[in-house]
Amino acid sequence: MSPWYIELSDDDLEFIRNFVALSGSLKKVAELYGISYPTVRIRLDGIIRKLNAVEEREKDPFLVKVMRLATDGAITLSIAREIIEIYEEEEVVKSKAEMTTNSEGDKSKDE
């Protein structure tokens, strides 16, 4: 299992720390930050989405390896985040190129 915190910023981690320290009370967190309850809920939902994204990444062996390196202290979390970001950008480009190639192949079959 990769570290659940890999996608979380330092601010997110601090928010979670405060949330736990305040016994999970969104009302108390809102008071601490001086923001509204709905704003705290939105922030928490964003963190939950990031945690769910980590679960999806656990299916990719390369990303699992990067996350393990960060957990083991071989690389920093910020370096791990940067590697993951670059890797995912390249995956998007590769995916778009494959879709273009496939759609061009479909067009030639129609002719």
UniProtKB/TrEMBL annotation:
Ranges in coiled-coil conformation: none
Q: Which InterPro entries match?
A: DUF2089, Sig_transdc_resp-reg_C-effctor
Q: Does the keyword Transcription regulation apply?
A: yes
Q: Name one Pfam family in it.
A: DUF2089
Q: Which GO terms describe its biological process?
A: regulation of DNA-templated transcription
Query: Does the keyword field hold Nuclease?
Result: no
Residues of the DUF2089 domain? 8-52
Annotated source species: Bombilactobacillus apium
Keywords, alphabetical: Transcription, Transcription regulation
State any single GO MF term: DNA binding
Protein name, please? DUF2089 family protein
